[in-house]
TrEMBL record:
Keyword RNA-binding: no
EC number(s) stated in the UniProt entry for this protein: 1.5.3.19
Protein name: 4-methylaminobutanoate oxidase (Formaldehyde-forming)
InterPro entries: FAD-dep_OxRdtase, FAD/NAD-bd_sf
GO molecular function terms listed in the Swiss-Prot or TrEMBL record: 4-methylaminobutyrate oxidase (demethylating) activity
Coiled-coil annotated residue ranges, if any: none
Keyword Iron attached: no
Organism: Oceanibacterium hippocampi
One term under GO cellular component: cytoplasm
Pfam families per record: DAO (PF01266)
Keywords: Oxidoreductase
Superkingdom of the source species: Bacteria
Amino acid sequence: MTLTDLPKSTTYAIVGAGVHGLSTALHLARELAATGRGSGADVVVLDKTAPGAGATGIACGCVRNFYMTEPLHDILRHSLDVWMEDPVNYAFQQVGYISCGEGNQIDDYGRIHRHQNDVGYPSDLYVGAEGKAFLKAIWPDFVTDGIDVVLHEKKSGYAGTRQFVRGLVEKCEAAGVRILSGVEVLDYESENGTVRSILTDRGRMKVDMVILSVGAWVGKHWSLLGKPATISCGYADGRAVEKDMWTYWRLLEGEVYVDEPYRTAIDGDPPVLHVEMMNTPVVDPATGKEIQDHLYVYWKNGAERMDRPGVQGGTIPIRIGPEAMIDPYGHANDEYQADDWFADYMCAAMGQLMGRFEGCRKNFRERRNGGVGAFTPDNVPVFDWIAPNVYMTADSNHGFKMAGVGKLLARELVRGETPAALKPFAFTRFAEGRTFGASNSHSPWV
């Protein structure tokens, strides 16, 4: 679609062509056709760069359901349906996902395991010696010292981000959705709180409904809509805490080449692996010095962006604060490249966990690794109306794996009923004393 094709009006304007914007567009087109209320021709997606130009396009690509925030489990159950609809075109490798922890997280893992199975997302739990044996059966060189609990999600896995975006774009266009790249939204023109038009650098477009799926740019659009920079967050115990509406975190992910294929004991593609050892330091094998006082790392076989075989993974993001430079985004932004210690940390952690990765620092892929995520006040997504005709999908950087949010949202937009899986993520939770609390982890994601 050329830049001159900005329509004068549309029923549904989706701002942002990442996972949420594209998934919503596709499923909205399907819902409209299925109910006889319209078609993909009623849907326009605007992106100031191109599909997948933000976090979706540079994500590591893990598809998992390991969250201590239990309502997220149902979201991922629905998302799995989307991934499995067309795993080839979506580049989905259903290899499973394994998370490991120390004794202080056994109770947390038990709750996650029970709730995942309650919502129909099967997982197995191993404690103590059973967990160590389970890991050794997959990776014989796994150093299981200190690992006391293991959770195995059987249906999780990983995907190639660029192929996934291509697959969604092709399906959207086949359904009649118009995806306009190179169109930047400059402002929203409202009347009594209802957005009537979107002002872009390519002209003005009248709209009936707006869906914001802008990822790291959510703070900008929030401000354009006249929303406040801070919010009072109420908790179940009666506390109210004033917080920044958006907090930016710098993402830390990268790649490590492998000298021998990264395989399981039976020569299979290994599950995605995540390990958090909250009381185990990561030590630089070259110097013997402690890099961090805890170990948090994840990795899986490289799916894309590798010029030879390797693994992709990362660790906990670094908090920036309530303001950040979003443009240029990702690897092009000089301000937010991965710290110098990141490669040392990731490789040392991998070497501590598996013998095959000892001394792998020389194999770290030296390239620009950058990205920024916008997190909500409680680090949990907000999926809700923020104006009479403006819906916001603010995923708090949980996004890539949550391909099902767009499918659930499409039902709400067309049928007028909020799916049960979306209700816990209402914006009103902050005022109603339902702000999510902190979890037993160093990571803001769980």
